[in-house]
Amino acid sequence: MGEPDRSAEALVRSLYAEHGRSLLAYATRLTGDQAAAEDVVQETLLRAWKHAGDLVEGKGSVRGWLLTVARNIVTDRARARAVRPAEVGEVEDHPPVERDHSDSVVNSMVVLDALDQVTPEHREVLVELYYRGRTVTEAAQELGLPPGTVKSRSYYALRALRSVLGGAGAEVAR
Length: 174
Fold this sequence. Notes:
mainly alpha; 74% helix
């Protein structure tokens, strides 16, 4: 193994140590399946290894690059499943064991893209309350804000999010 391979390996190890948990959580939200999410994280880190030079020398957020790659992998896999022909001998009278989660993946992607378009203060309140499932009091403690501020920010954050989603013609009504 040469020196570039070792530095790329070290980069991937540091990326996994720093971003692995959030990347897995993001992939799990997108896929709705822990095993599939682990595959997505593995593929994302493999691509990071292949593009180690770009990541080290590149401009912009490494986390953003990783999340974008993960989202693209999930999208590519969903598209590949959609174009795959039905297998011969499939029994139609038995419902599938698992429901199709492609709608929830698309909705998650739409919401996550919309979250990128609201202010950081609004985003952090929404993430604490809705993605992490915290109460207003817990979110206030986590963010170091008074509960009243968390309530008002969540109100305005939801309005901003609705505005972004409404402008995109999104279908996130559930």
